[in-house]
Amino acid sequence: MIEIKHISKSFKETQVLYDISTNFEEGKVNLIIGQSGSGKTVLLKSIVGLHDVDEGNVFFHGRNFTQMDNMERKGIRKEIGMVFQGSALFDSVNLEQNVMFPLKMFAEMSEEEARERANFCLKRVQVVDKNHLFPAEISGGMKKRVAIARAIALNPKYLFCDEPNSGLDPRTSIVIDNLIKEIITEYNITCVINTHDMNSVMEIGEKIVFINQGRNWWEGNQSEIWNNDNEEFNDFLFTSELTKQIRKSMI
Amino acid sequence: MNVFYNVGMYFLLLKRVFSKPDDTREYFKAIGKEIVLIGYNSIPIVFIISFFIGAVITLQTAYNMENPIYPEYLIGLGTRDSVILEFSSTIVALILAGKVGSSVASEIGTMRVTEQIDALEMMGVNSASFLILPKIVASLVSFPVLCIFSIIFGIAGGWAAGEFSGEVPTAQYIYGIQYMFIPYYIVYSLIKMVTFGFIIITVSSYFGYYTSGGALEVGRSSTRAFVSSSLIVLLFNLILTSILL
C-alpha cells in the first residue's frame, strides 16, 4: 500500500497542493482524476520523488520515502515503473534498447538474457517485430505500449502512469487501459494512474481520488461515483448531457 | 544574484556528475559514442577553418613584412606561433562552443522537456552523471586531439597560401616553422584546450540540464550555453596565459 500524509507543494509563490492525504490500495488500479491544472501530475511526481514536497510524507509499504536520502530512494525506485505522459522513450536508441535499458543498468543479466526479457515485455504489450524501430518512427499508442513494456521490465511492485491516454483516440485509449489492468492483475502490481478520461474511470478505476484546486476533494470506489453528492466531482465527471442521463438512469 | 545562483547550481550539478557511476560498462559505451559525436564529427569543421585561417595569417604576415630587412622565413615563424599560441586553442574552442556546446545543451534540454531525464531518475539512474560524465571524458580526450589537428591544418594552410601566392617559398616557410621552436608552446596550447573542453561541456550541460518549458526554452538554453561558455573560455584564456607564459 502507498500512503500519502498531508502533502503540500508550492513552486515559488504558487501553491499547487494543499495538505493531501490518501491511500493507494495494493494490487489495485488507483486513479487520480481532476481537470487540467488541478495538480494531478505534481501530486504523482511528488509521490515518486521527482518533486520534493514542502510538507508531508509518502510511505511505500510503511517505508517513509520522503525522509530517505538519495541512495535509499534508489532502492525503492527500482521497485517502481513509470509511464510518462509523453512516453519519455529515449530517442537515440531503438525500442528493444529502450526496454533493455533498465535491465542492463540494474539487473544481473547477460546481454542475451536482457534481450530475451525485453522481447518478452514487448510481446506482452503486443509490440511484435518492431524492435529495431526508433521512437520517432512509431505511433503515439505504440509509444505508450513500449513505455509500459519498459516500466514492467524489472518486475516492479508499483506502476505509476501519468495520463496514459492523453493524445490517443478512444479505441486506443481503451486498449491501453485494458493492457494496464491485465498487467497489474497478472503481476499483482499496485498501480496509480493520473487521468481525466471518463472511460478509464468507468472501465478500470477501483479506487478514485478526485483532486480539485490542489485539494483532495473526494475519494471512493467505482460504485460510489454514481450516488455521491459532491457537486464539483459530479460537475467534472458528468459534463456532457449523455453522461448526465447515464447517471440519472444508474441512480 | 542570478550569477551567484547559477554558479552555485553549476557546482552542485558537478558534484552529482562526479559521483560513482551506476554501471561502468554503459559509461564506457557512452564515452565511445560521445568521442565520435564530439571529436570525430568536429574534424571537418576544424580542418576547413584551420586551413583557411592559417592561409590568411600567412598572407597577412607576408603583407606586413614586405620590407627586405625581414627574412622570408619569419612569415613561417609568425604563422606557426599565431596558430599554436592562440588560434588552435582559443579560436577553435570558441568554434567548438558553437558546434558542440549548443548541441550538448539542446540534446540534454530536449531530454529534460520530454521527461527522458525524469524517466532515468525514476529508474534509479543518476541522470546527471549518466548523461554528462561521458561527454566530459570524451571532450578531455577529443579537444587536445582536435587542437593538434588544427595546428597541423593551420600550418599546412599557411604553406599552401605562401607557396601558391608566391609570397614565401616552401623551403623558407619550412625553415621558419622550425626556427626557434619552443615545444612548451604546444603544451601550453593543449593545457588551454583541455580546460576549454571541460568548460564548454560542463557549462552547456548545465544550461541543458536545468531547461524547463518547451521547444522555445531549449533554444534559449542552447544560446545561453554558447554565450556563457564563450565568455568563460575568454576569461580563462586570459588567466591561463598570465599563469603559463
Strand content of chain B: under 5%
- Order of helix and strand elements from N to C terminus of chain A: EEEHEEHEHHHEHEHEEHH
Structural class of chain B comes to mainly alpha
Biggest interface: chains and residue counts? Answer: A-B, 22 and 16 residues
Major pleated sheet of chain B: none
Overall morphology of chain A: globular
- Rg of chain A (CA only): 18 Å
Number of helices of chain B: 9
- What low-confidence regions of chain A span 5 or more consecutive residues with pLDDT below 50? none
- Share of residues in helices of chain A: 25-40%
Structural overview:
The complex is a heterodimer of chains A (251) and B (245). Chain A is an alpha/beta fold and 251 residues long. Chain A is built from 9 helices and 10 strands. Chain A has helices at residues 40-47, 70-77, 95-106, 111-124, 140-152, 170-187, 198-203, 231-237, 241-250, and strands at residues 2-11, 14-24, 29-33, 55-60, 63-64, 80-83, 158-162, 190-195, 207-212, 215-221. The two termini of chain A are 32 Å apart. Chain B is mainly α. Helix content of chain B is 84%, strand content 0%. Chain B has helices spanning 2-17, 24-39, 43-64, 73-113, 116-122, 127-165, 170-178, 184-209, 215-244. In chain B, helix 4 packs antiparallel against helix 6 (127-165) and helix 6 (127-165) packs across helix 7 (170-178). Chains A and B meet through helix 2 and helix 3 of A and helix 5 of B.
